[in-house]
Amino acid sequence: MTGVTIMTEEIDKLDLSILKSMQKNARKSFRDIARELGVSLNTVSSRVKRLEESGVIKGYSALIDPSRAGFDMTAIIGIQISKGKLMEVQKKIASDNHISAVYDVTGEWDSIIIARFTSRNDLNSFIKKILTTEYIERTLTQVVLNTVKETYQLPI
After folding, report:
1. Which residue from 155, 127, 153, 156 is spatially nearest to 140, judged by alpha carbons?
2. Among 128, 124, 129, CA closest to 92
3. Tens of pLDDT along 91-112?
4. Which of 2, 79, 92, 144 could bridge to 74 as Cys pair (CB 3.0-4.6 Å)?
5. Positive or negative: CA dihedral 67, 69, 71, 77
6. Mean pLDDT across the chain, nearest whole number?
């Protein structure tokens, strides 16, 4: 595998190994990662710092099971937006706490959003609110029945 360029530097095999280890357990100490990869603690520390500074590592957070936190319903919502207002509407939508992701997409819909809800009534209120948002022309809501796979990890 050749290196991937980030800013003016490349991500090499060691960087990818560090990232893979951190994806499995972001709470693992740098000392444990160094031991696992057979490199020095200083090497891991400096590599992680560089990956953070370059924006490859954007931050750290807990992975929460939505259903165990009370958000049993996931919806995928297609949105048609008036021409020229895409970014404005997407930014407004993205600020809602229900929203996990907002995507620009090709095809019939201008944007696809992934959102989580506590109940059917919660989803219903959200859809009614979003349909009153200026420049939203139409929506199509699909409720997820079963999640077979969902990951936030890269295939490294």
Report:
1. 127
2. 129
3. 999 999 999 999 999 999 999 9
4. 144
5. negative
6. 91
